[in-house]
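Example 9 (inverse folding). The structure is encoded as follows.
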């Protein structure tokens, strides 16, 4: 079966970035290793993001969108993307484009035999506070999940869609995607990718949502790990 990729792009008040997203993802689609399309998930933006998204999708047949009635958060946007993807592969990139869409080909080249490939920002271009809080949070998550991932929050991933669709909805799921694949007895891998400073827009982060919140999420993950059920259907009629 020919592999195809849908790239999910969560959006919240990113009107300054969206035309650049259109340009760079359009350029990637031209050289992508597999047929690729884009799915915007507008998470209740209060700016002009939805109008720009609609204009982009009207002008590009490979671009589509979902528009939430209000802001539900990044985890809900990613889960909605998973629920609506119809291709065999699901990608994810943030609309701030601090990661490079061209690196999706690097992830695709490392997908053989694994079910999730995530980027690893080994030379991050963020503030000291943001970097330090992420390093601490990643260390805490590794202790709880034993996923051996150095950068689970990296906003550049490819997942086999059959695994993505089995991930349950919960707040903070975007921080545990590799761990959720492991719960399904899937295989995961990380590869180094490029990282850039934010060019426009305002980042939505703080000590709470990068450190204290993720710590509480880890306890929810432990509960889920003990309750999680795997099953495989061998026949149906």
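The amino acid assigned to each position is listed next.
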């Amino acid at each position: 079966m020919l592999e195809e990729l849908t790239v999910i792009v969560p959006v919240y008040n990113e009107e300054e970035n969206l035309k650049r997203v259109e340009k760079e993802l359009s350029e990637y689609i031209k050289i992508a290793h597999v047929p690729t399309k884009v799915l915007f998930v507008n998470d209740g933006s209060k700016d002009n993001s939805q109008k720009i998204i609609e204009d982009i999708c009207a002008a590009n047949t490979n671009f589509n969108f979902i528009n939430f009635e209000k802001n539900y958060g990044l985890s809900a946007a990613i889960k909605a993307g998973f629920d609506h993807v119809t291709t065999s592969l699901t990608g994810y990139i943030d609309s701030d484009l601090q990661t490079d869409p061209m690196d999706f080909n690097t992830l695709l080249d490392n997908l053989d035999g694994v079910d999730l490939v995530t980027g690893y920002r080994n030379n991050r271009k963020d503030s000291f506070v943001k970097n330090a809080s992420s390093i601490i949070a990643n260390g805490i998550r590794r202790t709880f999940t034993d996923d051996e991932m150095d950068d689970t929050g990296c906003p550049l991933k490819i997942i086999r869609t059959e695994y993505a669709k089995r991930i349950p909805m919960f707040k903070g799921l975007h921080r545990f995607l590799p761990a959720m694949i492991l719960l399904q007895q899937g295989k995961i891998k990380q590869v180094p990718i490029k990282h850039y400073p934010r060019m426009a827009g305002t980042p939505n982060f703080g000590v709470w949502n990068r450190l204290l919140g993720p710590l509480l999420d880890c306890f929810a993950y432990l509960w889920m790990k003990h309750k999680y059920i795997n099953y495989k259907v061998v026949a149906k009629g």
